[in-house]
Amino acid sequence: MRDIKFLEDNGVNIKKSLELFGDYNTYNETIGEFLVGIHNKINKLIKFMQSQDMANYAIYAHSMKSDAAYFGFTKLSEMAKEHELRSKAGDMYFVTEHINDLIKETNNAIMLIQKYMGDKETPDTKQPEKESNNVQTNPEDIYDKKTILVVDDSNIVRNFVKRIFSEKYNVGTAKDGEEAIRIIKANQDNNFIETILLDLNMPKVDGFAVLNFMQENNLFSKIPVSIISGDSSKETIDKAFTYQIVDMLSKPFSEQSVKMVIEKTLIYKDMI
Question: Of these four, 1, 192, 196, 230, which has the most CB atoms within 10 Å of its CB?
Fold first, then answer.
């Protein structure tokens, strides 16, 4: 089908999405990933609601909020944000009372995307999300290009940044803080990683744990870090800037804004 007006007529904020993605091609290339992602995330949310694990529930609601905003599903993004805030506050009653509304809105988004993509192009929602490649170790690449490490639990964000920078830079990825620390440890003495874009709210090990690791090992002078986060609360911003970060970018961000942050971070790298 691939008729963008179909999405607009059904309340999808395509104009806002194009401001972020830059063009229809990028939107169309990644919407299948979004479809698989929200299907997996709503199943995770149901699981964490049933186990009363509000900490992980908040992390996945946060991720759904950001991804839905990128693709113009404003209502789903706003609902996920409310679930994120309530679960962070430990409001189990709200979560159990309203998760069916979130499931319904997620299913509406899934059905719209499936109709938009058509049967032949719609990916299997039961498949895992496609992973970006990790930090490359090809010796030729090491000397030809600088390396950016993108740490974010959202596959959409990781692949979006990779699409933007892959021609000019090596782009390595990590889906949580645990994986990021492992990669940083393996490369901290070889000057391989030029800069890090780091999310804060992630499962397993969060971004603040990565910042603590960087601080404890005196790595900020070797590898400058900028933050990408969907949490723009004063408390989070103030806490982030207690570390030697270069900049902080709110999600969802545009291609132009993330390019500016990378440029600023690499300039800082050249100065230290």
Answer: 196
| Other Cβ atoms closer than 10 A to 16 | 15
Same domain, 40 and 105: yes
**d(C-alpha 224, C-alpha 194), whole Å:** 7
Q: At what angle do helices 155-165 and 54-70 cross, to 10 degrees?
A: 40
- Reduced to 3 states (helix: H, G, I; strand: E, B; else coil), residue 10 is coil
CB count within 10 Å of CB 89 equals 11
Q: What is the pTM of this model?
A: 0.83
Q: For the sheet containing 225-229, what is the strand order? A: 170-174, 147-151, 193-198, 225-229, 248-250
> What residue type is assigned to position 226 of the chain?
S
Same-domain status, 150 and 253: yes
Domain that holds residue 166: 139-271
Is the domain of 251 the same as that of 152? Answer: yes
What single-letter amino acid sits at 127? Q
Residues 12, 82, single domain; the answer is: yes
Domain assignment present for residue 132? The answer is: no
Residues paired with 35 in a beta bridge = none
- What is the dihedral angle through the alpha carbons of 10, 14, 15, 18, rounded to the nearest 10 degrees? 180
Helix axes 92-117, 74-88, angle to 10 degrees: 160
End position of a domain, from candidates 83, 117, 151: 117
Q: 197 with 259: CB under 8 angstroms?
A: no
The answer to whether 225 touches 196, Cβ cutoff 8 Å, is: yes
pLDDT digits over 32-85, tens only?
999 999 999 999 999 999 999 999 999 999 999 999 999 999 999 999 999 999
Q: What is the CATH number of the domain that holds 35?
A: 1.20.120
**242-271: per-residue pLDDT in tens?**
999 999 999 999 999 999 999 999 888 777
Structure tokens at 172: 């390595």
Cα separation, 8 vs 19, whole angstroms? 15
